[in-house]
Amino acid sequence: MDAYQTLDHTFEPVWDTKSEILILGTFPSVKSRENHFYYGNPQNRFWKLIARIYGEQLPLSIEEKKSLILRHRLAIWDVVAKCDIVGSSDSSIRNVVPADIAGLIKQSSIRTVIANGTKAYELYQRHQLQLTGMQAHKLPSTSPANAAWSLERLEAVWRNALLEQVW
Fold first, then answer.
1. d(Cα 96, Cα 66) in Å, to the nearest integer?
2. Using only C-alpha atoms, what is the Rg of the chain?
3. Does residue 115 surpass a pLDDT of 60?
4. How far apart are CA 26 and CA 24, in angstroms?
């Protein structure tokens, strides 16, 4: 079994003052940490999902991914700024230092917070809700570990949340 590592989140949130919907993950996976950007595991369906929902080409570079997010008034970040973690295992996360999500919300037009999966939602509830005063909406994770959800099922739920904001 791998050992715990104490790690800092090493890349910035993607947002601008026009961002209205903040999508939160937990903490970068090993692949994301290697790539220095969000959802770096090629098996994670996040980028494919966002591109499909907005009818765009799959972004490949970090700049293309940032542009896709900002064009649609989205923002992405993670709930955790620093933690102890084993590999990419969200269930192993402990000793959390929360990211300054409240600070980001104050500087932007964010009016909706979406948690990408149960663990992101739980960590947000525990470490962020009292600071932001904004309830998060839990969506099914785009992680490859969430194999019970096909891309088509994910797209239907995420599309409602992002485009129609049906809660």
1. 26
2. 15
3. yes
4. 7
Find all residues with CB under 8 Å of 33, minimum gap 6, and list them. 7, 10, 40
Q: Give the model confidence (pLDDT) of 124-164 as tens digits.
A: 999 999 999 999 999 999 998 898 999 999 999 999 999 87
* pTM, entire model: 0.94
Q: How far apart are CA 75 and CA 116, in angstroms?
A: 12
Distance CA 52, CA 132 (A): 30
Spatial distance between the Cα atoms of 159 and 137, rounded to a whole number of angstroms: 13
User: Which residue type occupies 158?
Assistant: W
For residue 140, give every residue at least 6 positions away whose Cβ sits within 8 Å of its Cβ, in sequence order, or none: 117, 146, 149, 153, 154, 157
